[in-house]
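Step 1: inspect the first sequence and its tokens.
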Amino acid sequence: MYEARQQLRGLRELGEEDRKKKMEEANTDLAKKYKAIPLTDEQVKGVQAFFEEQRKQMQQQRGN
């Protein structure tokens, strides 16, 4: 996860389209790493859902 965060640093300076592309690339790389553990497709989805929920919670906390 640390590596994924490092990849995403500095994305705020990019335009929206470039940022979206980099995010998709990072998510694809991360999914490949999860499968290398190995995780099933369902487990990968569960991990991704967990981190998405964490991201949403952090955004809400920043907004308050």
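Step 2: inspect the second sequence and its tokens, then contrast the two.
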Amino acid sequence: MRKTQHGFSLTELMVALAIIGILLGIATPSYRQFSGNSRTVATTNSLVGALAVALSCNTTDWSNGWIVFTDASVAGTVDGTDKIVQAWPAPGGKSKVSLIYPNTAFGWLQYTARGMTNLAGQATFTAYVQGCKGNNQSQVVVTVMGSPQTTKIACP
């Protein structure tokens, strides 16, 4: 009569654990890059969504979040006559959002009733997660016509 073997030997178990360890070591950096890229896309989508419903956006540091509000009196300032339409919190993680505009004192973007902006040129927003690699930085360009266009560019 033959004995049948049940289970794994210690050698088989050690080989399986070694293979799992190698696979985890390969997958972890890719997962970090993937999750960073996902945060960049989410931040960009949030920003473009804000621009889509915007009457006026105002902030000095876009990485801290942004707001959309009606701007009835003092341009670019929320005061007693304005109504906040929506506020977006900071994107979180190591996300960075910035506004590049020819006039650096401009920290806000305003839309007219016709959907055009108050810009003399174009405003360019960038969004990325610190440590990103490749073409995983998002760039949102808003022209005088008010239409945001999103592209992927090289990380800083």
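Step 3: confirm your contrast with the notes below.
The helical segments are 10-53. The chain has a mean pLDDT of 79.
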